[in-house]
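job 3f2a | input accepted
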Amino acid sequence: MDELTARREKILCIVISEYVETAKPVGSATIVENYDLGVSPATVRNELSYLTEQGYLSQPHTSAGRVPTEKGYRYFVERLMEDAQLPPAEQLMIRHQFYQVGMDLEQWMKLAAAVLARTGRGAALVTTPRAPYSRLRHIELISVSENAGLMVLVLQGGIVRQQVLLLTDPVSQEELSRLSNRLNMALVNQTVSGVETYLERLSTTAFSRLEVEVLQRVAEIMRAADSRPAYEVYHDGLVQTLQEPEFSEITRARQFVEIVEGGWLLDAIMAQMVRQNGVHVIIGGEGRWAEVGDYSMVFSTYGPAEASGILGLLGPMRMSYGRAISTVRYVARLMSDLLQSLYGETKAE
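job 3f2a | predicted structure (349 res):
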């Protein structure tokens, strides 16, 4: 992408700013009347013509003003947009909202989606954090009767599973506690592969029959956890976004709803984002996804390696990119801090 002169960059910024604000094509008269560029109206018209010929702007009708193109928005985001931050007062309010809900992961997801939609002014998506593989945090074996016990399995991330064990021979609570302690010492933070490896090494003593059964159950539960859907998605702001003039046609509105609510396209974008750090801006599908050719997306990963997720905003290409990027960046950082504290506590126990 060739570099524009300072004046052309200034005019491109003006067109984008005006169009994002009004959703109406921007003519040379608007620029001359509202901005002191120190040049004649003819010069402004010539510069608009140049930007149009080079693909940064388009002209819907011969007598109409200009609107930014995908190329124009991309140039703006990559070269002209200032590194904006949310105002300190907004940051404080958002952080206060999160700390009010306490250590509740589901409430964090819902609140993150609501904050993104309201502050970033778009349709928000937040996926639940997901580790590549589940890891064992704690096993507890509890005597229920002489011939029955209860296994409580806690996986990293707060997943809790319970199963009843039918005992061939009576086993005391003291024996169950010793077994629980031994397994916890040997298997804490292990994946299902580590559990299966440990299981293969067990001797075939009389007592190990119970140990083998417990470990088989643990492995089954962990395999089921690993095979569950990759993520759940929390949405917010869809209704408000559909009120934008770009969605006055029912066909476009329906298409946008399908994109926001999921499907193969969203899965493909999510898969790409998992391999990237920081905020990523997708404008008009970037030639890869025709279905989002009229829309833009601002996404970021969040969370520690133990359990990361994705959050972001979708909207028409006429998006306030500075606002959207600063909002996504701040909420992702906040969510990362919250999850880091949660998993830090998990490791410390």
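job 3f2a | The longest helix spans residues 321-348.
job 3f2a | closed
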